[in-house]
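Let us practice reading a record.
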Amino acid sequence: MFHFDSGMAYLSETGFQITTVGIPLLLAVTLHEVAHGAVADRLGDHTARYLGRLTLNPFPHVDPFGTILLPLMLYFSHTGLMFGYAKPVPINPLNMANPRRDMAIVAMAGPLSNLLQALVYMSLLHSFLGIVMTTSWFQSGEAGETVARLIITLFRMGILVNVVLFVFNLIPLPPLDGGRVLTGFLPAGGAAFMNRIEPWGMWILFGLILLDPYLGVLSRLVWPEMDSLTNLLMVWATKPGVS
């Protein structure tokens, strides 16, 4: 039998979790794409600027599948992986002085923006935990405890989401940023090979994810790096005296 109170509690908790993951994820993928466009703009390609993509307004960057459906599917599948992406910023490498080198720099800007965001969330979490420990309002009533839980969870999810995007995007497989960075520094033959497999890159990646219980490629090479970096930032955030 369905109990109204328990049903509402479930919906409330689900809404809480979606909110505390969705806000950092939306900000993370927006700044990721803006970083690509801003660096390309500095290197001579103003395509993103002309198309209005150098904006912090998330709506021009939203991809219906990558920003909304995929994260929701991952959330409700209880895989433990939270990932998403925004609409790629259009870039024309022919407008750059050194297209191969400059495209590698542009590609690296995205993951670095996520690393920077993770560090910012770490600092915010550390500072806020100090405030909570020294402010009675956060400890003396349901309202204060709820607000504290919301903010702490937002900052923790901000660290986690950005670490996932940072590490995942460094996988050297185009069209991921790591693949494009690698392409920029390979000899001509290697770069040509990477360009040929790029249309199949996402299918290869999905295959690696689905087959990981059997192949263990991501389990050995990617997930441990995510866990190590996340744990390191969480320790720094919660350690007294670290800022």
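A brief commentary: The chain is about 70% helix and 0% strand.
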